[in-house]
Design brief:
This protein is an alpha/beta fold and 243 residues long. Helix content is 33%, strand content 23%.
Length: 243
């Protein structure tokens, strides 16, 4: 079986600063993988490398056997960034925002077809915003806005979904709803790579996790990765003696 995501020896430098060095891991289809590391550990750079938004200084990234550029052309990978640069006063509805996830699949006229409307309706339903589909995006709560942008990624119909801190600043209800949604996405054969600082709840979400500190320190079952002695390696903590 072709891996959903295969990262080999990835090295990324910004001038004299090394963001990633010899980072390697593989994800199989149908899995949810957490991405754990402190700020500055290279998580955002890893996401950008997988998306093909930065050019590595070494190593390779393959998404379902394709290069990042090819995977993006084929709409095989969806991305939900940590924050969106949005004019929240602009008069667009939730449905309009989610439809932007279909733009790459529209024909030259850029007019949505029946299957595009169906994909948008399904994505809005899956994130629990069907009753708010016509509401102006700026009139949503923070958690509802996050769900709307997850719906936009789902409407693209990707096979691999990347999410950068989707639980930051959202309420518990939204966190639980997104956890159920991502688990269902994986159960249907999709693959999820999600970064999160909520380590206590990560085992409920992720089958496996990658511990990152400019390189992959550990990749394995989430319950193993979040053990204190392993987290200490990533966060630079001393867990030797009580003080």
């Amino acid at each position: 079986m072709t891996p959903a995501l295969d990262v080999r020896g990835l090295r990324v430098r910004y001038g004299t600063v090394t963001a990633l060095e010899d980072a390697s891991f593989t994800l199989e289809p149908g899995r949810v993988c957490g991405l754990v590391g402190m700020n500055g550990s290279g998580k955002s750079t890893l996401f950008k490398s997988v998306l093909g938004l930065v050019r590595p200084d070494g190593g390779t990234v393959r998404i379902l056997g394709d290069s990042p550029a090819a995977a993006r052309r084929h709409r095989a990978v969806g991305y939900v960034p940590q924050s969106e640069e949005v004019d929240w006063t602009f008069p667009v509805s939730v449905r309009d925002v989610v439809m932007t996830g279909r733009y790459g699949r529209l024909g030259p006229t850029r007019r949505p077809r029946r299957d595009d409307h169906a994909a948008v309706a399904d994505a809005v339903e899956r994130v629990g915003l069907a009753d708010l589909a016509d509401r102006q995006i700026g009139n949503l709560s923070g958690g509802q806005r996050k769900r709307a942008f997850v719906a936009r990624a789902l409407a693209q119909a990707p096979q691999v979904l990347l999410l950068d801190e989707p639980f930051a600043g959202v309420d518990r209800r939204t966190e639980e709803a997104l956890t159920v949604l991502l688990r269902a996405f994986a159960a249907d054969g999709g693959t999820v790579l999600v970064s999160s600082h909520d380590l206590a709840r990560l085992p409920e979400l992720a089958d496996e996790s990658v511990l990152l500190r400019r390189t992959v320190l550990l990749h394995g079952p989430t319950t193993d990765v979040v053990r204190p002695e392993n987290l200490a390696r990533a966060f630079g903590l001393d867990v030797g003696e009580d003080r």
